[in-house]
Amino acid sequence: MKTTNIKPAEIKKKWLLIDAAEQPVGRIASQIAYLLRGKHKPSFTPHLDCGDNVIVVNAEKVHMTGNKWKDKSYYHHTGYMGGIKTISAQQLKDKHPERIIQTAVRGMIPKNKLGRKIMKNLRIYVGAEHEQKAQAPEAAPARTLASSVNKTSAKSN
Q1: What is the DSSP string of 44-65?
Q2: Helices (H), 60-131
Q3: Element (H, E) at 37
Q4: Can you say whether the dihedral through the CA atoms of 155, 30, 77, 69 is positive or negative?
Q5: Which of 38, 93, 134, 138 is the most buried (most CB within 10 A)?
Q6: Phi and psi (nearest 5°) for 106?
């Protein structure tokens, strides 16, 4: 057997569409990170951006379990001394619903130059409309066989 490394010129990127309506944040974020990294492709190379471009719609309809809407906190720093700011998940959803998914995905990809480059391949939209209609995005594949089996059995019942 011979291991082949893909070259940057050989990378083929597709546009994938994910509907986040009524999906748990962590599950949808792990699927997005998986697709952005390119781990679903047989030509996956860890040091290259070989993942696909991902479009997420209906970011405001994302779901959290338990009391996370009021208990979960998001932090950011203003850059000034003592400038740490806190916002609850519900407040962030009311102001910028796309940032909930963006923050979850950012935590799941590498924290380096490659990770910053990969994050540019993610577009998140509030509502069902998006600006990438010209790219003809296709529906994202199910991550595992078990999840696709569960969805088909639920539809048939």
Answers
A1: --TTS----EEEEE-GGG-B--
A2: 68-71, 89-95, 98-106, 113-119
A3: helix 25-37
A4: positive
A5: 38
A6: -60, -35
- pLDDT digits over 57-110, tens only? 999 999 999 999 999 999 999 999 999 999 999 999 999 999 999 999 999 999
**Could you give the CA distance from residue 61 to residue 40 in angstroms, rounded to a whole number?**
26
Alpha carbons 133 and 91: distance in angstroms, whole number: 30
Q: What is the pLDDT of residues 107-139, one digit of tens each?
A: 999 999 999 999 999 999 999 999 999 999 999
| C-alpha to C-alpha distance for 120 and 107, rounded to whole angstroms | 14
What pLDDT does residue 145 have? 41
Q: Which residue type does 42 have?
A: P
Q: How many CB atoms are closer than 10 A to CB 51? A: 25
Helix (H) or strand (E) holding 16: strand 15-19
Q: What radius of gyration do the chain's Cα atoms show? A: 17
